[in-house]
């Protein structure tokens, strides 16, 4: 177990993911209040540049006119717009801003979750659900900062956001890939692409 002045953290011995125990997690109302303070607009060039770290490598791998789901898209679904501009169909689902649970009962060629998995109280359950929604050969694109070491974690700004409760490492994604028998590509410091076996 790790801890700082605000809360404690558990680390999985298998996959090395770090998770905040339930007693230090925000309520749904507190969490949404934090999200409402974000200002991410689809027409903001800086925000688009940020999202392109996932969008561009994913676009290079998608077949033309693929259909996908932007999971946890937030109030300004810029990534969905960027992918639509390149000829793909993109549905939205966000617990607070675009609730669309029926999307989680459908099949998709790709699913994106940018700056989402660090907010999940049940990351394994949610990721398993998303994986089941992918067609064979489909792509799951995740963007989240990665834990590199206990020493770096102790002073990491990323964990100071009270809505950030699940922290993945390279080993976490390698564990997932092995568990799913998936192809894994780690791109830069914060993008993971996992391909479902065809």
How would you characterize the overall build of this protein?
The strands form two sheets. The chain has a six-stranded mixed β-sheet, with helices on both faces. It is 30% helix and 26% strand. By secondary structure, the protein is of the alpha/beta class. Strand 6, helix 4 and strand 7 form a beta-alpha-beta unit. The model has no long low-confidence stretch (mean pLDDT 96). The chain has a single domain, classed as Rossmann fold (3-Layer(aba) Sandwich).
Overall strand count: 11
The first-to-last residue Cα distance is: 39 Å
| Structure classification | alpha/beta
Name the beta content range. Answer: 25-35%
Integer tally of domains: 1
Low-confidence stretches: none
Describe the secondary structure blueprint for this structure.
Layout: E1 2-3, E2 8-11, E3 18-19, H1 28-36, H2 45-61, E4 67-71, H3 78-85, E5 89-93, E6 108-114, H4 123-132, E7 134-143, E8 146-147, H5 150-154, E9 166-169, H6 170-180, E10 183-187, E11 191-195
Parallel strand pairs: 4-5, 4-6, 6-7, 8-9
Antiparallel strand pairs: 1-2, 2-3, 3-9, 7-11, 10-11
Helix pairs in contact: 2-3
Brief summary of the model shown:
This protein has 198 residues and is an alpha/beta fold.
Which key phrases capture this entry?
Rossmann fold, 6-stranded mixed sheet, 30% helix, 198 residues, 5-stranded mixed sheet, 26% strand, single chain, alpha/beta
